[in-house]
Amino acid sequence: MLAALTDRMVEVGLQLHPDKTRIIYCKDGHRRGAYEHTSFTFLGHTFRARRNRSRHGNLFLGFDPAVSKDALKKMGRELRSGTCTPARTWHCRSSPAGSTLWWRAGSTTTAASGRGS
Question: What distance in Å separates the CA atoms of residue 35 and residue 105, rounded to the nearest whole number?
Answer without folding.
Answer: 35
